[in-house]
From TrEMBL, chain A:
Quaternary organization: The complex is composed of two ATP-binding proteins (CysA), two transmembrane proteins (CysT and CysW) and a solute-binding protein (CysP).
GO molecular function, one term: molybdate ion transmembrane transporter activity
Topology within the bilayer: Multi-pass membrane protein
Xref: Gene3D superfamilies: MetI-like
GO cellular component: plasma membrane
Segments forming domain ABC transmembrane type-1: 58-262
Family, per entry: Belongs to the binding-protein-dependent transport system permease family. CysTW subfamily.
Role of this protein: Part of the binding-protein-dependent transport system for molybdenum; probably responsible for the translocation of the substrate across the membrane. Part of the ABC transporter complex CysAWTP (TC 3.A.1.6.1) involved in sulfate/thiosulfate import. Probably responsible for the translocation of the substrate across the membrane.
Localization: Cell membrane; Membrane
Name listed for the protein in its UniProt record: Molybdenum transport system permease
Coarse class of the protein's main subcellular location: membrane
InterPro entries: CysT_permease, MetI-like, MetI-like_sf, ModB_ABC, Sulph_transpt2
Database matches in CDD domains: TM_PBP2 (cd06261)
UniProtKB/TrEMBL annotation, chain B:
Transmembrane segments: 46-75, 87-110, 130-148, 189-214, 234-255
Compartments, record wording: Membrane
Gene3D superfamilies, per the entry: MetI-like (1.10.3720.10)
Major location (coarse): membrane
Subunit field text: The complex is composed of two ATP-binding proteins (CysA), two transmembrane proteins (CysT and CysW) and a solute-binding protein (CysP).
GO annotations of cellular component type: plasma membrane
Descriptive protein name: Sulfate ABC transporter permease subunit
Membrane topology classification: Multi-pass membrane protein
Residue ranges occupied by any ABC transmembrane type-1 domain in the UniProt entry: 49-253
Amino acid sequence: MNFIMRGRLWSFGFRSTIMLYFILLIVLPIVGVYSQSFQQGWSTFWESATDQLAWEAVLLTIKLAVISAVINVLLGTMIGWVLIRYRFPGRRILNSLVDLPFALPTAVGGLMILLLLGPNSFVGGLAEKLGFEIVFHEPAIIVAMVFVTFPFVIRGVQPLLEEMDKSEEEASYTLGASRARTFLQVIFPSMLPGIISGAMLAFSRALAEFGAVVLVAGNIPGKTLIASVYIFGEIESDNTQGAAAVSVLLLTLSFLILGAVNLVQARRHRK
Amino acid sequence: MRRLLIGLTYLVFLVLLVAPLAKIFVGSWGDGWSGFTESLTREQSLHALMMTGILVVIVTVLNTVFGVMLAIYLVRAEWMSRRIKGLLNSIVDLPFAVSPVIGGLMIVLVLGPNSAIGAFFEDVGIKVVYALPGMILATLFVTFPLMVREVMPVLQEIGAQQEEAASTLGAYSWYTFWKVTWPSIRWGVIYGVVLTVARTLGEFGAVLVVSGNIMNKTQTATTLVYQDVENFNVTEASSVALVLAAFSVGLLLLMEWAKKRKEVH
């Protein structure tokens, strides 16, 4: 009896520790940001959030994240398709390389892009001669975002393509459908959930990206200052109120996207 | 069509992944071998790499222990209702949606010198923000979902039957864990560890905000790269970045290996 009692006490203590750790580490900080930004009332929050520069930074971030998500959908769908459907030399290596942006520190990614596209590089020089600028302007931010979110769509599409029933496709051919029609009406619809959830994850990651962007963006307020860099700047200048307000905007947006992704995936699993 | 698509795929990989990696290699060797070693043996480089090493060890150990335990509870625990489990399960993913900078800001807000908890720790004489404890917390926050998300599906897949059998036969729960549960989740855990190490090694935004980036004190390898770039020391920045990139590529290979083992078991 004594042994069992001691076991119960132990496991109770254990459970409480794990749960406490979980709540303190994850929930408390998130609650902290929300409460900080609403501490002085709704109007103060609204003032900090609608500050001209803050607003421009958020809008710019959303715009660039959408562009990079679209680029990712196009590239990712193609690459996912090629890596699953075709057999060619180097396929396995390319398939492992897909995860490189996840493994690489984002600051290193930013430095790479800076070196590759910077004013002293071949590409940068070429672009300058042609009369447009990359680094410290919007194109560089998009490149950084695409680089960081590169694996999402590919990894979203691949399992769907692997699971796909070949017979549907064959039936479509037998019934006389052209290749293009088969792709659009049979293959593409079954890839779509992967593309959508991959694109949403890529979008929310691009919204949040800091390391890669801060090095290449130039961070000029109103022009190339994105939201996460704006937040960093506000923290540096000790304006935690402003930082928290913009954080709440971004966080709420990301949480909504995460919820939507979970919904899409849950629906897929139920099928 | 087929040729064209394969060609395009190679082109994207070459431009987006291989060329940048090669460029950083060339960049760090800009001043030859001596330039590379000199930038790595600077006092701040050695200190920053050491800080990153300390962070990796502490964060990986804590995240593994708590992550595995939480995964087991979320899948197996009977003392929580299904509702609560579902709620906790969706909370696990939240750090994925949080920008690292915001993650850092959270720690500063909750534990900074202006907050109640921060003031308490300051009185006791423990510095949390702008010191190692804060950096550990920030990194733990960011890496939290990685382990839980790797272990949970494995636990769901193997089911509870074997464990139940072991407990009815009278095995003590620790014994059940080591003899029955551990062998089946082992490769998931190893994969989670590799992911955690990679993320900790590369964490930048959260650590930058929490650490204050004080040279020779709280500076990590990634924040040193950032500072070097800001000061236009491109060669130095590339050298440190190359070391980090080499570790990442090594971890990527490990991941591939662990993934294969995970699929076999």
